[in-house]
Amino acid sequence: MSLQEYERKRRFDATPEPPPRLESKSGHRFVVQKHRASHLHYDFRLELDGVLKSWAVPRGPSLDPADKRLAMQVEDHPVSYFDFEGNIPADNYGAGSVMVWDTGTWQPLSPVPVDGKYVPTTDEDARAMLAKGDLKFRLNGKRLKGDFALVKMRGRRPGSKGNEWLLIKKHDEHEVEDYDIDHYDSSVLTKRSMDEIAGDEASAEWRSRPAGRSKLKAAWLASAVARLDQKKAAEKKSLAETKNTKPKTKAKAPAQTKTTKSDPIDIRAAAEEKKTKKSRRRSA
Ligand code: MN
Known about the structure:
25% of the residues lie in helices and 26% in strands. It is an alpha+beta fold. It starts with a helix and ends with a helix.
């Protein structure tokens, strides 16, 4: 495992993202980050072997087994990226706002069913399944729960970069028909919306440093939440005072941060995915 590509793409004097650091001990956490970069997407990350294995999912994960979501594998991220929420400044790689959309734990599942059921298995099996391009796992998050598979696509798409996988929900008691991800636009960490995160300049000032990091982060979170509460209280008051006029304290939606660097998301691939889904429905 290496974080060289993560390091190569970023300037750590200019981005609030955490520095590349391999962890010697690994847990089994996962995070989904909603990322409003040049194209909105969701980053799906699984903690394994001291890093976060990462995929960019243009349409986001789904709890509907009928949705096969394109997931482009991207560079491994440091484990400390797990709770990164804030704004990556313009002219930086991935410039835009990042929200912690879901967090929890994951377990690798046996590559083949045992007595008709997929059961938790070892990291060794997880590594083998990843290498083979067919990883089965169980999530226990705040929003995502149940069994999933990440399946690598093998050159079926013209111009494929070889990093394309599909994220698929398995049938179980956690599946949700016609799952609508847009229904959930709030951080599981701070409850903020994407616009609130984008408008919070203090987030951009957050520096994730190994020394005293948790203290800094806690201060940042506390002040962000306090500001949000104040704003909401002010809005409520203003609304009550002037029932027919819009509250003046309402935060302006900030202009979307411009990006000049290339982004891992290929909008063409996302469009292809949509087409595939439609034609599948037609033939169904
Ligand atoms: Mn991203």
